[in-house]
């Protein structure tokens, strides 16, 4: 494993891109530049702020997130927080549904099940009463 120089922006961009599972071609496409330009950028020790902002936006992180990126910190985060084999917690996963809506749905479903159960019990009682009156 190579250690990243604390100030080598290009290597930090490359590692974040790799952690995202993104190829240079995809980053180049999103930035509207060539793959060779991305390669050159990833070899650069520094980058102008406006370009860094663009790259950060495409990678889904902040400019400061790139500047402060540390491989050791990522491994510490993984070691301390990931208990399954899913790295989504690294990238601030946000569910696409509202948990409150799901809770209300579950409540409504339970209510319907309870009403059907009560109706089944009422039907059973009336059937048994019918049997008793026929005897």
From TrEMBL:
InterPro entries: Cro/C1-type_HTH, Lambda_DNA-bd_dom_sf. It holds the Pfam family HTH_3. The keyword Transmembrane does not apply. Residues 100-130 form a coiled coil. Residues 13-66 form the HTH cro/C1-type domain. Keywords: Coiled coil. GO terms for molecular function: DNA binding. The keyword Coiled coil applies. CDD domains: HTH_XRE (cd00093). This is HTH cro/C1-type domain-containing protein.
């Amino acid at each position: 494993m190579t250690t990243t120089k604390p100030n080598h922006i290009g290597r930090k961009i490359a590692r974040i891109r790799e952690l995202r599972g993104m190829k240079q071609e995809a980053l180049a496409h999103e930035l509207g530049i060539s793959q060779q330009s991305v390669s050159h950028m990833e070899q650069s020790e520094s980058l102008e702020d406006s370009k860094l902002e663009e790259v950060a936006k495409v990678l889904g992180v902040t400019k400061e997130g790139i500047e402060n990126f540390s491989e050791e910190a990522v491994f510490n985060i993984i070691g301390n927080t990931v208990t399954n084999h899913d790295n989504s917690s690294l990238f601030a996963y946000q569910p696409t549904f509202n948990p409150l809506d799901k809770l209300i749905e579950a409540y409504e479903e339970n209510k319907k099940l309870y009403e059907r159960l009560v109706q089944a019990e009422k039907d059973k009682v009336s059937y048994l009463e019918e049997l008793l009156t026929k005897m």
